[in-house]
Design a protein that fits this description.
- It is a single chain.
- The protein has a single domain (3-118), classed as 3-Layer(aba) Sandwich (Rossmann fold).
- The chain has 5 helices and 5 strands, in the order E-H-E-H-E-H-E-H-E-H.
- It has helices at residues 11-23, 34-43, 60-70, 83-89, 106-118, and strands at residues 3-7, 27-31, 48-52, 75-80, 98-101.
- It is globular.
Length: 120
């Protein structure tokens, strides 16, 4: 399965995503913000970055832009509970495979991850 980096500052959401992705057979690394994600990306190879848009330090959009430039083969998914932030990410289709709206169900997350990883 895939090695997935999850950048999410809300502990309960991060824990839900980690359990869900591990349950699907993926390896998961959690980081609490975009700056920690940059460090994790430099230290390890990931198949997919799943990042919240609104985070302290470095937000998910800035993280996605940097990750797409530095790791062009890695898939990128963004997520947000804020409609305005999802709209701001709307123009990033070339970089991010999907912007997932929070809250989401396990089935939605699983389908989105599957689609992003399958997207060649």
């Amino acid at each position: 399965m895939a090695h997935i980096l999850v950048a999410e500052d809300e502990a309960s959401v991060a824990a839900f995503i980690e359990r869900a992705l591990k349950g699907l057979g993926h390896e998961v690394a959690l980081v609490p913000d975009g700056l920690a994600a940059v460090a994790a990306l430099a230290a390890n190879r990931f198949d997919l970055l799943l990042s919240d848009i609104v985070m302290p330090g470095l937000d998910g959009i800035a993280l996605a832009l940097k990750a797409a430039k530095d790791y062009p083969d890695m898939k990128i998914m963004l997520m947000s509970g804020y409609a305005t932030e999802r709209q701001r990410a709307h123009n990033l289709e070339a970089l991010a495979n999907l912007v997932l709206a929070k809250p989401f169900a396990l089935a939605e997350l699983a389908a989105a991850i599957e689609a992003a990883l399958a997207d060649g």
